[in-house]
Design a protein that fits this description.
With about 240 residues, the protein is an all-alpha fold. It has helices spanning about 10-30, 35-60, 65-90, 100-125, 140-150, 155-170, 180-195, 205-225, 235-240, and strands at about 135, 175-180. It starts with 10 loop residues before the first helix and ends with a helix.
């Protein structure tokens, strides 16, 4: 007897599910190799964009949007929180022999990040029906900025904790973020892939460039980047959560 998903899920859904698996692997690897874990999270973000492209090309399934949000919880909710927890706890030399105020603070901030990521993904699926923008920082963007900052080696433990805490609000804010045009998404995608493949090239130029692009969109996009024409995007099929 074949599994229930045979004949119901397509190639785009398979990529979405692999995105979730990458999130789990990143959580495990984070305790051994923090940079590899950051690269895996960035790879999951690539998969998150790829599933939309495949859905446009080959068609999506009714389960696609739900699978996408569930996968994003793993890859852009739990995995970045684990990444931040490891970076901060190791950097501040927080021990695990007893429950200390420092451990509680770090754990609380990272747990809140997961809670707000889940909240954003649920709110997005239920209420974000606009064609050209979404409200709040996308979980994918939050995870990308955290991963790029760690790969670029520009963020100490205190800054990582502060960034993680800031995203707890930004992900559920009412700030409107316009969808990227395909041209700009393609440029960012190329930098994204290079940051994964050759993170140490030219003194970590590609992770640093990815970080700058992500921060520029996050801080300036709502006010200066508004689309003048509508064109189909990968996010139209699987979401821009």
């Amino acid at each position: 007897m074949l599994p229930r998903f045979v004949g119901r899920l397509g190639v785009a859904d398979a990529v979405t599910v692999s995105n979730a698996a990458l999130g789990f692997v990143a959580c495990v690897v984070a305790f051994v190799d923090i940079e590899l874990a950051a690269r895996l999270i960035l790879l999951a973000a690539v998969a998150d964009g790829l599933d939309g492209i495949l859905a446009r090309r080959y068609g999506g399934s009714d389960a696609g949007p739900y699978l996408d949000s569930l996968a994003d919880v793993a890859s852009f909710g739990v995995a970045p929180a684990v990444l931040a927890f490891v970076v901060v706890s190791d950097g501040l030399e927080i021990g695990f022999g007893s429950v200390t105020p420092e451990l509680l603070i770090v754990t609380g901030v990272c747990a809140l990040f997961v809670a707000m990521a889940v909240t954003r993904l649920g709110m997005y699926t239920a209420y974000d029906t606009a064609d050209e923008y979404t409200e709040g920082v996308q979980t994918t963007l939050a995870a990308t900025i955290l991963g790029a900052a760690i790969l670029a080696d520009v963020a100490g433990p205190e800054l990582v904790l502060a960034i993680t805490g800031a995203f707890c609000y930004l992900m559920v804010s009412r700030i409107r973020y316009p969808d990227l045009l395909a041209r700009d998404a393609g440029i960012m995608g190329v930098v994204h892939v290079l940051a994964i493949l050759v993170p140490e090239f030219a003194d970590r130029s590609f992770p640093f460039a990815l970080l700058i692009l992500g921060l520029a969109y996050m801080t300036l996009g709502p006010w200066f980047y508004w689309r003048t024409s509508r064109e189909p995007e990968p996010a139209d099929v699987h979401g821009n959560a």
